[in-house]
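Action item from last week, closing it out:
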Amino acid sequence: MGAERNEIGPALDGLRVLDLTQVAAGPYSTMLLAFMGAEVIKVESCSRMDINRGRARPAPGDTRVYPGGEPGERPWNRAAHHVHRNINKLSVTLDLSAPRGKELFLDLARICDVLVENYRASVMDRLGLGYDAVSQANPQLIYVKISSQGDSGPERDYGSLGSTLEQTAGLASVTGYEGGPPLMTNETYPDPVVGILAFGALMAALRRRRATGRGCLVDLSQREVTSMLLGEAFLDYSANGRVAGTMGNRHWDMSPHGVYPCLGDDMWAAISVSAEDEWLGLCRCIGQPQLASDSRFQDLESRRRNQAELDQIISTWTLERDHYQVMHMLQAHGVPAGAVLKANETLADPHLEDRGFWDVVDHPEAGTYKQTTTPWILSKNPRLPAIAAAGLGEHNFQVFNGLLGLSPGEIDDLVESGIAGYTPSDGA
């Protein structure tokens, strides 16, 4: 046999994606596509910018994150959500409500393999640019439609954010302290999960296209994806009539289970014991092997009944140790445990550094910062390095001239007429 083939470049090299995404779920999916080598063309509006870019003129006290805490002269190019979620993408601007804007959009659709959007379900149809219109222009195009409720059903046109989807999907019903109200994660939890799943759904659609030569509509509901995380709770109710509730950091099938204070200011470690060998390992690790035969803790049910007392015993041990030390010691004894890391610790974590999870990005307006990459590694196909998120309309000429063949004068006309542009319009 011949020598093993060398790396041949990113896995999605040659795939061209038309990106109409905003907020988080959609931008995460297209960011991952771009890291894997796809050419992602983000179509933006000068009048209604992607919320990730923030406001053209932030009000005093605006809570968005800007480098150095300052919005700067062009805050829409400096906002943290934008520079993080729109890495490795091209940016063009088009007014999709204008006839010429629609024409150019369909011209782009004809030369793209994939379209991804996450507007409310009916928005693109009202513009005359929904799946039927776009697939007529390009029958091979795969149209990924991410919406909060899906493309059918009585609540099809309801709008949502990740925070409201946690509630509607049922996730918030099991998060929070026992007897207390539902709690939100405050990190739009459903959004990145949906973004990663959208990437996977697209891979299935691309495989289908390879076999049939035809594109399709991928109808992805954020609500349904989030509900999928609660399979155990749904099964328990369906089979046993029991409604899952909040338990704080406790768990019905594990004990001990929770976060424990460690040495230092506001330092913690998480410990989850699901099997008897793990329990025996924990007892040995903390220097109290006799606990394994203690009648209060001899099995799962007794440990659950007496978990408050058990938590105190464990906390006495963890409080004398650094949270990393707690994790490493328990893991050495076969106990699932993890240090609770803050953002600064995660950025410097040696394990993530060793795996190459971070890239350092030099953004022309936001400065130098660390950027997440992909949560997977392909052994034969490297991902692309992180390229700074584009300024608004930065690639208008490259795309309109290089891909669509418009002359410089025609592009100037687009800008003068407000169909394209480089700065937000008044009120954006």
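Closing note: The first strand starts at residue 16 and ends at 20.
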